[in-house]
Amino acid sequence: MLNERSMELYKEANQYSPGGVHTSIRNVEPHLVFTKAEGAYIYDADGNKYLDFQAAFGPYILGHNYKKVNDRVIDALNRTDLYGVGSTDLEIECAKKITKHVPSAEQVLFCNSGSEATYHAIRLSRAVTERTKLIKFQGCYHGWHDYVARNMLSEPHMIGKRDPGSAGMMDEAIDNTLICTFNDLEDVERTFNDNKGEIAALIVEPIPHNIGCIMPEEGFLKGLRDLCDQNGTMLIFDEVITGFRHNIGGYQNVCAVTPDLTTMGKAMANGFPMAAVAGKKEYMQRYNTYPGGDVWFAGTYNGHAIGTAATIATMEIMETEPVHKHIFELGERMRQGIREIHDRLGIDAYVAGFGSVWTTYFMSFEPKNYTDLMQNDADLYIKYRKKLLERGFFKMPMNIKRNHISYSHTKEDIENALQAIEDVLKEII
Ligand SMILES: Cc1ncc(COP(=O)(O)O)c(C=O)c1O
Asked: Name one GO biological process term (predicted).
């Protein structure tokens, strides 16, 4: 794989931006500079073509540069953009669609990133409950702000301990966020009991995709709902990844547990910057977009025509075409195919996934939480992904990262990927 041009450009990128990238975890080896994206494929500056499973961490549910979405955005921009006052026709249409499909969304507000959405949801929960503490789970990611940026991909000795993700964070924010173990209701109950009447919200990725794909055990999400109800705590489903990707109404529509608040982003606009916070009307009307509301909600770019048009187009395609059927079928074929390869080669590994998402953990049992993932052979995981990348199959070469299938992937793409997986695994063992 040639990457001379990428290396030249990377050097240049480093002159102007620290590390040459604009998000921390983008700095992986080999460092590639990308110049083109189309459907299921991405291309780098040296002309290498990759079948993309990274999907920019999840937004591309339909595929890159998806024409029907891009056309809607271009049409919108030919007539409208952003006003900073009043409402727009596109905002209304978009909000109507989301409240129609997402069970918890009686009302919705738009912002531009998942981090903004979780920030707004948490602040609202504090205003509603008049409490300060928050529960999150070890390994889950809810954005970069101080309220939630702790105990993400913790080192083994820091699991469950005080593990802020950044220098410069406020101690008050770190210490008011309590950490629990996913799939462990007793741990959550104990935490509630130890902090009686103090917990404003419990925020959870209903499937923690930031550590691959850990499935919630039967009754876990319902148990969280019950514990929140018993303790007067707001349940926030962070559906920034699961929303729209697993179901047009979010994973809450699949698991039949309705949170008080939901945060959305990524797949909702097929790659355009767009996010949302939604919930029960009685809570949403605390935001000061509503006359008399006392919870600040603002953003210069909120409701921009680009994001609203892209979301309407993406949701319309999900409503009228077999998007989820297609990506779920390919996801199932991928997982099954990899399991068969493991059986043939005698490899002891666990293939995890749901719908269009999958990953292979190099460990012998199904992980239930972040601690279990310490059994994953990280070196092998990264080596395996690097070798696939060299063959033109893009899975980010970083530990415990998931892969995504889009509506633009074909059966042939999946069969080709399976062949490459078999070849690479034969080479490795
Ligand atoms: C579950 C979840 N919540 C929130 C975020 C933050 O979203 P953004 O990167 O758009 O700020 C992410 C980003 O990966 C995420 O995976």
From this structure: porphyrin-containing compound biosynthetic process
